[in-house]
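Researcher: Here's my situation. A collaborator sent me these components and asked whether they could plausibly form a single complex. I don't have experimental data yet, so a predicted model of the whole assembly would be a useful starting point for our discussion.
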Amino acid sequence: MAHAHSVKRYKGLMDWLTTVDHKKIAILYLLSGGLFFAIGGFEAILIRLQLIKPMNDMLEAQTFNELITMHGTTMIFLGVMPIVFALMNAIIPLQIGARDVAFPFLNSLGFWTFLFGGILLNLSWVMGGAPDAGWTSYTPLSSTMYSPSHGVDFYTVGLQIAGLGTLIGGLNFLATIITMRAPGMSYMRMPMFTWASFVTSAMILFAFPAITVGLVLLTFDRVLGANFFNVDGGGNPVLWQHIFWIFGHPEVYILILPAFGIISEVIPTFARKRLFGYSSMVFATILIAFLGFMVWAHHMFTTGLGPVANALFSISTMLIAVPTGIKIFNWLFTMWGGQVKFNTANLFAVGFIPTFTMGGVTGVMLASAPADFQFHDTYFVVAHFHYVIVGGMVFGLLSGLHYWWPKMFGRVLNETLGKWTFWTFAIGFHMTFFVQHFLGLMGMQRRVFTYLPNQGFDTMNLVSTVGAFLMGVGIIFFTINIIKSFMQPKGCANDPWEDGRTLEWTIPSPPPEYNFKQIPLVRGLDAYWKEKAAGNTEMTPAEPIGPIHMPSPTIIPFVMSVGIFIAGLGLMFSGEEFSSSFMSFIFNNWIVCGLGLLITFGSMLMRSLFDDHGWHIEPEEFEEEGYKHG
Amino acid sequence: MTVDEQNKHQLVNQRHRHEGPQKHIVAFIFSIVLTLIAFAAVGAGGVNPAFTIIILLVMAVLQVFVQMGYWMHLKDKGHMIPIIFMLGGFFVAGTAIITALSWMWW
């Protein structure tokens, strides 16, 4: 006997602020990730405009430093990570046959802390200067001696808050995948995207504490006058490099593994074949994650670790090429003999393979310590990591977005516009970054705001800038495609690609609030494909129809994040001399910071004191309970 | 309590069969004894400090096993995933701390 709890239904903006539905949180992640991606892209265009010709004076050196710092930080932490989280949120519960994530409240909290961290970081543009010490923020450059403005404080506090959201999200996906798989879905029957997200979440769990500690130490150094990275006080600036890269290298695999997962879904679907070497794919993913934690010092070859350490880290880095190679060949063998359909999603997936491989090859070149002394801090490195992050990650994301758009929004994206997106973006990408390999080998340093004429850099920089604009055009095509798709009514089929293999294609697009009317029974890898092969049109249910328990919407995560945001601002400006004595009083006496923490801990208290049992959707409501947007 | 909840309760009881308090009492006494030895080792004084530190570390490691195994239930069935993740965490953190520190202050 289920008892019906009444639940307050919100409408409009309040609905979005209070939602705990993983599908709506996915859309929130996508929107805010897209916004930050656009900001980061705009910064990239400005950087390339400054470098279009030698001795250009369009931007000042200081502004240029702020732009490169914010471009890197925004793109990695606020651009692609949230879009990854958007896809993970939207798809994982559907792929494992679950009705939501394990902790819907935490899911919402993770999103709001990420958003407020991102907003705090970007507020730096209008509050006295953006961070300018590079996305790596190496000490002593990022210390108060060399970065006296509040720029780096925005970096440390903003990333700390955003990182909180990422850590919460990662834990949530781990718990979801471990505990909420449908009956019959063993670990070795999980779709590859779910596997990749699982391993990614584990990496987040292990890697993010390192950056949390690092950012706390740097904040202490800058705001409270500690000496962790200050040589005069007995500290060690190399410690920051270690902490940053112990986090930072796993972070780049956190970025790329979900893309591997997406590619492993898209390629089999459009080749109409099962993924070649599924178990070796799983094994390779885990191995990449494991090795990813053993290679951080390859970013530090030139800091003087000595030949033994450099040799060891060269070898461990080159080892990563082995599992990655396994994956590349598995994708190629999946396509071999398949009936390959080249629509936009698959074009991005197929385009990913050679592009990412090129990035991998330069990665092995950089892994060789003696050669790295030449490559270090040149445009060769810039070319390398843009090949793996844009050519890998962003291609993967665009593929995944085209592939799952119908599932998320109930509308198929236009193929003609999609192909325009792919070709402009892909050609623009190679124009921008291919020449940068040679610029680097010829000696052009990264992070320089201008260069002298007649060193052989002029033409290639021009080509690079033109390419950057072409990539921008590609993204504009994608945006037009999105807007166009929203002008048509919803109502694409459950399985718009007709060759869907996994559980998400068995339910309506977009799915109802409760996802599955009955949790399906999984009878093998590629569960839906298996049922199709057996002549069934739908999954066998694993439970009778009954009332469905749902979590209640709540505003608490939003309020908690506002509290953390206020506390962060209060901490940053605690030592500031304001022109108004009132402002000085409330900031210097930690009143603002305390108020923020009070809001956060007060919200936690509310959450603990008032139990929320959720509510039920009764079977009679199933038919009229459509999932509505906005 | 509704019939539904009663059924659920029974199900939970079947899954986590209660094994009586004896083992927990033994574990509790063992934890206390370990702590007492540690205190005694420091309190006794006079011994080589290096020796005291070794005793403390051994006691600490044993304590971790008791705490994890008995109170965090890691010795029970169905805890493979937490064990894998904890070992993974120890391994990653251990490698990072040992290598980074040994390079910086060799």
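Model: Some features of this prediction you could bring to your collaborator: Residues 12-554+612-621 of chain A form a domain with the Cytochrome C Oxidase; Chain A fold (CATH 1.20.210.10). The CA atoms of residues 369 and 471 of chain A lie 33 Å apart.
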